[in-house]
Amino acid sequence: TALDQIAARLAGSAPEDPPAAESLRLTLRSGNETERREVLARCVTSPRISHLPVLTSHLTVEGSPPVLAALVRAVLAHRDESTLDAALKLLYHPDARVRAAAVEGFWEWEHPRVHKAVLDRRGDPAPRVKGDALVFAVLMDRRAAAEQVRSMLASDKPWVRLAGVYVLGRVRREWATPLLSAVLADPHQAPVVKDLAREVVSSLSVA
Fold first, then answer.
1. Contact present, 180 and 197 (Cβ < 8 Å)
2. What is the rounded average pLDDT of the residues 148-168?
3. Residue 19 gets which letter from DSSP?
């Protein structure tokens, strides 16, 4: 689940050291998508400034959306403003996985251009991207964000409601508890939404 992915990212085993810059360049040229994604995951957990030119130059040539999503996370993990223009463009990429990765990569950035661009993604047609943008809004203590989460939970589309529960699990605010209780008490709620809500409630109770 999305919550499992968050937990793995925050509490996973110690990552391997990232490769040297030239080795990284060669791996990114590999035809093996799994290899490219694995090396980029290591770059996210252990960013090195020597990698940044290699990563940034590859943004315009990577053709696989899942690899590009991993790549934008690796670039944004450096929090280097020289990458800002290239990364902001990916908030409008045709593939929702790439847009979501860009939004998540910007979660901890403090820059006015980032704030405006990411908040605009609250209107994204993909629930995951919209949910990630709402996480950003809540982390900035935007009052309107809570109301938007409520609106997502009231949607007639299960995947929009699922994204709303995902937001609640990520932001961990006090107002999340009654909203989660309502999800669990709804006899007509989709099982997949209830399953994630139970995970969120369980994680909040042990936090």
1. yes
2. 85
3. P
Q: Is 14 helix (H, G, I), strand (E, B) or coil?
A: coil
Q: Cβ(35)–Cβ(68) under 8 Å?
A: no
Angle of CA points 35, 38, 42, to nearest 5°: 140
Q: How far apart are CA 82 and CA 137, in angstroms?
A: 24
Give the up-direction half-sphere exposure of residue 140: CA atoms within 13 A in the CB hemisphere: 21
Dist. CA 202–CA 179, nearest whole Å: 14
Quote the mean pLDDT of the chain: 84
In the predicted structure, residue 15 carries a pLDDT above the cut 50: no
Sign of CA dihedral 34, 35, 36, 38: positive
Query: Which pLDDT score, from 0 to 100, does residue 107 have?
Result: 86
Q: Is residue 174 within 8 Å of 182, Cβ to Cβ?
A: no
Q: What is the pLDDT of residue 4?
A: 46
Number of H helices, E strands in the chain: 13, 0
CA–CA gap between residue 170 and residue 123 (Å, rounded): 19
